[in-house]
Amino acid sequence: MKQISINETPVFIGTSGYKFEDWIGKFYPKGISNYHMLPFYTKKDYLNLLEMTFTFYNIPYLNTIKSIVDRGEDLTFSVRLNKRFLKGRYNQQDIKDFLHGLTPIIEKGKLAAFFADFNYAFSASKENFEHLEKLSNDFKDFPLFFELPNRTWYKNRFLELFQEKRIGLIVLDMPQIKGLAPYYPFSSNNYTYFRLYGRSKLWLTPEDKILDYEYSKQELEQFYNDLKVLSLTSKKVFISFCNVIDAKACKNAKQFYDIIVQNEKN
C-alpha cells in the first residue's frame, strides 16, 4: 500500500468517488471503460484513499464490493453511511446487513473510516447530537466522522461535546457564505478528516453545492500547514477532494501530494 506521511503520521489522499464521465480526457485516457477506471486510479502514487459514496443510496452487495477491492488493490477506503442511518430509522439488523456487504473491505483491512454527510437542514440541537452519539456507538469498531455543514454546530458548547465524547467531526472547506460551516481545523477523536469542496463564487446559498473549483497552490499550502499541526495528535489523517467537476479533485490531490513530499523531505 502506498505510504504518505506528515510528521510520521500516515496520510491518506483521495477523491469523493471516481466514476465520472467528465474525467475522461482530463484524468482518465480517452476510450477507457467504467470497469478500468478504478485500476487506473489506484496506479497513481498520489492517490491512496477512495471515498465510496454509492453506499449512501443502497446497502452494498458482497460481489460489488469484492470487485472494487480487487481492482483497487493499493487503496484504503472511506465508506459513506447509508441514508437510513442518517435519518435515524434503522435497527441492529440494518447495521449487520450494511457491514456484511462490506466484508471484503473489512477482511482485507482496507476500511479506514466511515463518514456521514448530513445536509444543511440538520442543525445543532440536543436531540440531533444524541443521534450522532448513537451512530458513533453503533459503529464504534471503526473511526466514524460527521460532516455537518450547518454553522450552528460550530459553537463552543458543541465543539467541546465532540471532544468530550470523542466524536469525529469532519473539517470542511466550503465558500464562506451565511449559514455554512466555517473552515475550522479540528480533531476530536484522535484522527483528522478534511473534505474539501472548493470555494466557487457560484455557490450562493448553503444548499447549492457547486463543485467546480480548483484550489490554488497557496490554498493547498494552508491545508498542509494546518494538517502539520493536527498530525501531531492524530493516528491517521484523511483528505478527500470533493471538487470533482472536470477532474479538478485529481489535479489538486496531485499538487497536495507534491507539497507534502517536498516539505517532508526538508
Automatic annotation (TrEMBL):
<dbReference type="InterPro" id="IPR036520">
    <property type="entry name" value="UPF0759_sf"/>
</dbReference>
<dbReference type="Pfam" id="PF01904">
    <property type="entry name" value="DUF72"/>
</dbReference>
<dbReference type="InterPro" id="IPR002763">
    <property type="entry name" value="DUF72"/>
</dbReference>
<protein>
    <recommendedName>
        <fullName>DUF72 domain-containing protein</fullName>
    </recommendedName>
</protein>
